[in-house]
Amino acid sequence: MPNPVSPEPAFAPLAGVRVLSLALNLPGPAALLRCRNMGATCLKFEPPAGDPMGLYNAAAYAALHAGVTVEVVDLKADAGRARLHEALGQTDVLLTSFRPSALAKLGLGWTALQALHPRLSQVAIVGAPGERAEEPGHDLTYLAESGLVTGTALPPTLFADMGGALLASEAVLQAALRTGASHTAGVYLEVALNAAADWLALPRTWGLTTPTGAVGGAHAGYRVYPCADGRVAVAALEPHFAARLCEAAGLAPANMFASGTHEALAGWIGTRTRDQLEAMARERDVPLLTLAD
């Protein structure tokens, strides 16, 4: 598995910023990794049972925590809470992924945190915003709510979790910019995973990726076609790319939304091997990528 941590980032906007994470599973660790890549000093506290990610995918856990200092801290014990507040006294941004009620039970509600650590900022990852933050959910339910689950097939990746991680790392950067130069009181920023899914779903909401949309299958130059020994993802969307593709296929300039164009391109591509299609793409500067079955 590739290491997603840059050895030494050329630009480190979070250099000097100390981030402490209590967030488990995927969104929090992925956000922390992004912060690490932006130069932050990253510390993570895990419960005695560990992070579930380490149990069901050790390779993913290792990749997510590269460059992160991990400590086992029992927040339900007095010694653990004392260690937490000791660390918070030297922390700029706290990253959490608990429900608000769980944070309150640990004495980590925003009001309590501000009273003890006024310059501390918090980025709270929740499933849904505001009053819905107590609702149970997971990546799949957030994607379904945003219209990104079609049929019964599972999505190919965890879009809401990873999108939420990007928004959370962005929020850490916002908090650092807000409080760093002015030395003002910390800020509370909430990141909802269903909002991340909504953000990713906007192209579909606008109709771009629906079956009648240009990048949803209606444009003959933007589709996945079977070829003689596999598949090819064709992305000849712009008119000049589409014209080159049609020329290669022996077609006159065509209406890329017409069924006849779809049929003609499908027929031509179906007789070509991956090597032939890649050679054509290099020669004519057509964006495509061939795939094995």
Give structural notes:
Helix content is 43%, strand content 15%. With 293 residues, the protein is an alpha/beta fold. The strands form 2 sheets. It has a 6-stranded parallel beta sheet with strand order 3-2-1-4-5-6, with helices on both faces. The protein has a 3-stranded antiparallel beta sheet with strand order 7-8-9. It starts with 17 loop residues before the first strand and ends with a strand.
Task: Round the mean pLDDT to the nearest integer and report it.
Answer: 94
- Cα end-to-end separation: 22 Å
Poorly predicted regions are none
H/E element sequence? EHEHHEHEHHEHHEHHEEHHHE
Say how many strands there are.
9
The secondary structure category is alpha/beta
Helix content: 40-55%
Main sheet specs: 6 strands, parallel
Please work out how many helical segments DSSP would assign. Answer: 13
Order of strands across the widest beta sheet?
Answer: 3-2-1-4-5-6
Question: What overall geometry do the principal axes of the alpha carbons give?
Answer: elongated
Strand content bin: 15-25%
Radius of gyration: 24 Å
Break the fold down into its secondary structure elements and pairings.
Elements (H helix, E strand, L loop, with lengths): L17 E4 L5 H11 L3 E6 L5 H5 L1 H7 L4 E4 L5 H11 L4 E4 L3 H6 L4 H7 L4 E6 L12 H7 L13 H22 L7 E5 H13 L8 H5 L3 E6 L2 E6 L3 H10 L10 H12 L3 H11 L3 E4 L2
Parallel strand pairs: 1-2, 1-4, 2-3, 4-5, 5-6
Antiparallel strand pairs: 7-8, 8-9
Helix pairs in contact: 1-8, 7-9, 8-9
